[in-house]
Amino acid sequence: MVDDNELKRLAGLKAPAPGAEAKARAIAAAMQAFQEKESLAPKGSEAGHRLTDRLREIWREMMQKKMLAAPALTGLIALPVAGYTAFYLMQDAGRFAGNSPAESTAVRQESSKVEGDTFQAAPKPESSTPPQQMGEAEIGRGIAMPAPAAEPPGRVGVVPGSTASSKLMADEASRGVAPSMDAAPPEAEDRERFAEFKTNPVRSAATDPVSTFSIDVDTASYSFVRRSLKEGYLPQADTVRVEEMVNYFPYDWQGPSSAATPFNSTVTVMPTPWNQHTKLMHVAIKGYDVQAAEQPQANLVFLIDVSGSMNASDKLPLLQSAFRLLVTKLRPDDTVSIVTYAGEAGTVLEPTKVSERAKILSAIDNLRPGGTTAGEAGIKEAYRLAQQSFVEGGVNRVMLATDGDFNVGQTDDDDLKRLIESERKSGVFLSVFGFGRGNLNDRMMQEIAQNGNGTAAYIDTLAEAEKVLVEESSSTLFPIAKDVKIQVEFNPAAISEYRLIGYETRALNREDFNNDRVDAGEIGSGHSVTAIYEITPKGSPAQTIDDLRYGEASTNNGGIANADEYAFVKIRYKLPTEDVSKLITKPVTKVNDVASFEAADADQRFSVAVAAFGQKLRGTAQTASYSYDDIMKIATAARGSDPFGYRSEFLSLVRLASALDSGKQ
To answer: 533-543, pLDDT tens digit by residue?
Structure first.
């Protein structure tokens, strides 16, 4: 029996003051209870969310609009009504199950679809490292830590139950901020950055006869344009780089017969479909296709952005699935390392042979988003690892996957450009893969790709990941030539004007062509590259620039040398392991002419259709009167073999653009 005096003594004692951590836990528990209470209706379903109310409301709206006035339409309307109703019922399914709004949102996000593909996030097995052996450094690098089962979801990038979580809660409690328990991040502010550029002008062959540019095999612009159109709006002009749209498609250009010559060029002159008074000079380059048996050993470093901005279904989860696809394509003796960066950079996986595939896939699966974006530190660490495992005569490449949101360390695009320029001297190549929307820094990704012997792609769907990393893996991974430049000199006796279609961001000075210190693009195994000029023959009524009063340039003998040529094409390149360039030349004459546009090869005509589409999206004056229907006719007639459906998809994009463009008027 308890002593009454003891009870009286205890009653007189004062309760000890709670500590900061205890206060934080109490506030968190109270806020969670409040949110749960607010998320549930007092009785039954909330007003406006009852099944019968929703059905009656849908039906009433339809009747008021007289959508069912004609009995014959009843059968046609029934199916859309069912789908419309099912959408709302699925949307509110979480509420009927007793979930909070945040939980319902999380459920919908978990089962979301990436545009164009049914996409499921890569499985995320628990880390084999016990939580007590993993510190805050692992959290900052995006490494998953298994949370206690009883813990509710915590902040993105902060593991519930960890020291970091307790500190965060205590800090918020001291500032009177209620800890958020929602797993889903707020919608990201639109902070996308694209380089601004002007469309190439018409130039006079008499005063400016030489055109010089770096080749480009990037495809990021096409994927971004596709996503914009499928989301229901026309892309902004600066997101459309015509050469990247043209080079997105595989073409059956004639390639070289041996690796001794890394690529072959084919030039064709044909009538312009959108201007009867001009012609197109079509330059097609095909790289040597390295067969699987000839492929060198690969040393790859996956540099993966796991910052908080990557917390979206089309970012880190899609990235994980994309790199899983790539790993399955590699050979057992290839090497993979993984570097992540968020609040800090760190090595998640030391150089590991692909024969240990399960270990590599587990490291990919365990990545989690959270923190700021220390991109500079990640780049330095990735290049250090690539050099540590450098394979002489092999492929050494850093594969950067990010939304481009660098905000820690060197964040200026020019600074990052200089960093990449210094690192490329090591012989390590670079690939850049962009993911997601909202804060995509395409300008930065283009800068570092172009200055790091690299290529850039934008991955918006799992199908695109398969195209870039599986179907085109050899061209993505295995370079056959670097610093590839093209210079075309036009003969003013035959050509009065010319205009390069696209390549605005790849323009070089005339003197850069022979300067081996000037960086340019790379060509991968089997890559095809296409460049198209619109040229105005001498005497054509399409000429827009007046002739010079005092005549044109001439040789000492009073005539024009090589007067039978339209132009002279020069291509300069370096082999991947060499620093001295080689030169290929090709004159363009009437032998390269085709009588009509329809007589040109199907691949050539399809590439011209893509070029016309890109120009129209950019609002280029030369194609202003050329309709989407005209583009459709060319592309449809030239679709040819389309095993992967890329060309059929292009036709659908033209139809979408036509509908959206007409909707603006």
So the answer is: 999 999 899 98
Contact 158, 166 (CB under 8 A): no
pLDDT tens sequence across 616-665: 999 999 999 999 999 999 999 999 989 999 999 999 999 999 999 986 65
Residues 239, 658: Cα–Cα separation, whole Å: 18
| Of the listed ranges 58-62, 342-346, 362-366, the one predicted with least confidence | 58-62
Q: Domain boundaries in the chain?
A: 203-290+480-540+562-664, 292-477
**CA dihedral defined by 78, 81, 82, 83, rounded to 10 degrees?**
130
The three-class DSSP label of residue 287 is strand
Give CA–CA dist 129/145, Å, rounded.
8
* 362-365 contacts at long range (C-beta below 8 A, 24 or more positions apart): 362/125, 362/128, 363/338, 364/122, 364/302, 364/320, 364/323, 364/324, 364/327, 364/338, 365/122, 365/123, 365/124, 365/125, 365/320, 365/324
List, for residues 188-236, the tens digit of each pLDDT value: 445 788 889 999 999 999 999 999 999 988 999 999 999 999 999 999 9
Domains 203-290+480-540+562-664 and 292-477 alike in fold: no
If we measure between CA atoms, which residue out of 163, 124, 119 comes closest to residue 143? 124
45 has a pLDDT exceeding 60 = no
Place of tokens 């202003």: 624
Q: Token pair for residue 138?
A: 């692992």
Residue given tokens 């607010």 in the structure block: 38
Angle at 300 between CA 299 and CA 302, to 5 degrees: 160
Q: Which CATH superfamily is domain 203-290+480-540+562-664 in?
A: Gamma-adaptin ear (GAE) domain (2.60.40.1230)
- pLDDT digits over 141-158, tens only? 455 544 433 333 333 333
CA distance to 45, 462, 484, 579, 584, per residue, from 513 (Å): 72, 38, 9, 14, 12
What CA–CA distance (Å, rounded) separates 551 from 547?
8
Give rounded-to-5 percent helix, strand, coil for the chain.
Answer: 40, 20, 40
- Residue 451: HSE in the Cβ half-sphere, 13 Å Cα cutoff: 18
Q: How far apart are CA 53 and CA 62, in angstroms?
A: 14
**CA 398 to each of CA 335, 453, 458, 476, 513: distance values in angstroms, whole numbers, following the listed order:** 12, 11, 16, 12, 27
Q: Cα–Cα–Cα angle for 237, 243, 247, nearest 5°?
A: 130
Using an 8 Å Cβ cutoff, are 337 and 350 in contact? yes
In a 13 Å sphere around the CA of 110, the CA atoms on its Cβ side amount to 10
Q: Which residue has the tokens 């918020």?
A: 172
DSSP tag of 600:
S
- In sequence order, the β-bridge partners of residue 536 are 497
Tens-digit pLDDT profile for residues 234-269: 999 999 999 999 999 999 998 888 777 888 999 999
Considering only CA atoms, which of 421, 408, 386 is closest in space to residue 341? 408
pLDDT for the residue 164: 40
CB neighbour list of residue 72: distance below 8 Å, 6 or more residues apart: none
**Two tokens at 453?**
């012997």
The rounded distance, in Å, linking the Cα atoms of 583 and 574 is 9
CATH number, span 292-477: 3.40.50.410
Token output for 397: 């490449």
Q: How far apart are CA 289 and CA 262, in angstroms?
A: 9
Q: pTM (2 decimals)?
A: 0.71
How many other β-carbons are positioned within 10 Å of the β-carbon of residue 627?
Answer: 15
